[in-house]
Structure formats: C-alpha cells, structure tokens
Amino acid sequence: MMLHAFRRKLWLSTSLWMCVAILQITLTSSAWSQVVFDINAMVPARSVESIGLMSRMPNSRFVEVQLETSALFQPVWANAIQEITVRAVSRHDDVRVADYSPRTEMQTDVFGPVQVAVDAERFHEAGLQGIGGYPGVGSASGFAYQMESGQQSVHFAQKPALELVTASGTLQRQRGVYFKQRLSSQSTLEGSRTFHIVFEVPETWRADLLDITMEAVGFETPKSRRSMVLSSQRFVVAVYQEGDDVAARVAANYRRQHANLLQTVNTHAWAIQHRTYPTPLHKLGAKLDIYEPEIPRGWFDALVHQPGVAYPMSKLSILPVDVRVAIMNYLDQKVRIESLSGSSDTIITAEPRLADESELARR
Description:
This protein has helices at 2-34, 245-267, 269-276, 280-287, 299-305, 321-338, 357-362; strands at 35-39, 42-48, 60-73, 81-90, 96-101, 105-107, 114-134, 138-158, 163-171, 176-182, 191-202, 207-219, 227-241. Strand 7 (114-134) and strand 8 form a beta hairpin. Helix 1 (2-34) packs across helix 4 (280-287). By secondary structure, the chain is α+β, with helices and mostly antiparallel strands. It contains seven helices and 13 strands. The protein starts with a helix and ends with a helix. It folds into two domains: 35-108 and 161-243, Immunoglobulin-like (Sandwich), CATH 2.60.40.740; 244-363, no CATH class.
C-alpha cells in the first residue's frame, strides 16, 4: 500500500514537472518568435591611420569594422518593442575600442525654442486710522484707505525637453561597445541599422572573432505596461583584414563550419535531448539538482562563445557521431582564425580529441 502511494506521488510529481517544462518551452518559443535578429557573418576590417588626437599603444594599429544588423518584428508586437541593444565585445584584453558611431543622441518633437509666458497679479493695500482729543474740549477720529492693483506678464524663450533616442558607450574596460536604440515618434526600431567600430589591435592582427549580443526590450504583452526582455540572441562575427586573401579564406571556412555545426545540432536535437535525459526521471532529477545530465548544460555556447578549445571534450563523447564530427571540424577552423589575432592571451591547447576515425567508424 505504501509502495503504491509512493509510486502515485512520484508519477504526479513527474507529470507536473513535464507540464511545467512544456509550458516553459512554449513561452520561450513564443518570446523568440516576437523578434528575429540578424547580422553579417563576415566583416572586413579597414585600416585606419589615426583617430583624432587619440594616441595608440606601441606595436598596435587601428582597424574599422562595419556591422550591418536587422530586426524583424511580428505584426502584433510592432508597438510593444521599446528598445533594442546591440553589444559587440572582443575576446582579448589587448584589443580595445578606440571609436564608435552612432554616439549618444537626444531629440525632441518641438522645432525651435519654446515661448513661455508667466502672468503675475500685483496687489497692494494700505489703511490708516487715528484718534485725537483735548480734555474739556472734545475728541476727533479719522480713517484713510488706499488700494492699488495691477497685472505683470513676463515672456522668455526656453529650450524644449529632450528625450534619449540613442545611447552608446564602452564595455569591459574598452574591450567592447554597446548601442541602445529607443523608440521615438521620429524613428523605428524595425529594419536594418549600421554601426561603426574602430578597434586598436596588435600590429600582427589579421583576423579574429567578435561576440555580438542583440536584445529587445518591450512590454510583456501588447496590452500590458510591464517591460521585460522579449528576445536575446548571440552571434559570432568573423572579422578579417581587408585585402588579406588568406585571412578572408580562413574567416569564410570558419563561417561555413559554424553554420554546419548549428545545422547538425538542430538536425539531431531530439537525439541529443534523449541522450542528455534518457528518461523522464532523469529530467526530474536534473530539475531537483540530484542528477547531473549526461551531456553538460550549455556545452554548445561554451564551444562557440568561449575563446580557445579548452573545453573538456570527454564529456561530449555520447553525442551522435555526426555532431562530434561537426564539432571537430568547427574547432579546427576556430583555432585557425584565433591564431591570426596576434593577441598575447590567445588560448590554444592541444588539438581537440573526441574520438579517432576508427572509433567513430565502429560507433
């Protein structure tokens, strides 16, 4: 009897957790469909001689990149999106932001100065009363009253109130930069935008990877007034020296293997999910932090967005064969493009090993 009751409670707990998980997945998918971001996967870097009065560090030079971003809103959410933020961050400490555009901008809907009129009423009142007399003769009294009123008007010009439209600045001790665009009566957040960034890079720099995060903030529902992050997407942009054919080919190969890895992971998404959580009980245990998934959480983001190839590959040995092959091809190109950064803090370990060819063939 007690065993039956325990099984029933376990079944109810498992069913409840699965319902919650399905609801979370549904909400996440809905949030991702509200805004779709995009950005160019490869960007040539143009050499720049100087940036105003800014002096460069020894053994360094300036390069300028141009990011082309776009945002697509679902029709029902067009008026709910209030601001979009784009962050671009380098992976190296010896690469810093020297200049960027657009800069912070304020605007107003009012054209020209505002005429202000202040009216004041002036009022003055005075009264005097006196009593006098002489003993044996009599007494006398008197009263005097005076009132003056008038109106005064002051006119002056005042600058109209400004609203923030674009905010931009540096991040992580000048390793990155952000651009925040806010909705206004004279602009739209949907569509394409261009951002320019000038980096100070090592003299031997030829190519590198740039991490991009795009985020949309708006109302929780089209009819609510509560703001929240509606969509956040991460990208990796391959940047190469303009006119360097070898660096351009390396960047193109990285872009191709990155796209292949993403497509392969999406194709085998169900198999990866099943091997991570073989049964509903494993999912429940992971939710309660009493079970460690077979495949670590966040493994894809760690491979793609962390510099170098220092990820423990042994933890990915149970991934499908096609996924492991795509990972090895991707990491090979990642090492190649990072080796062209000229940075002193480039993290490159031994060649990644998931399994040799004979082992993959047996599996």
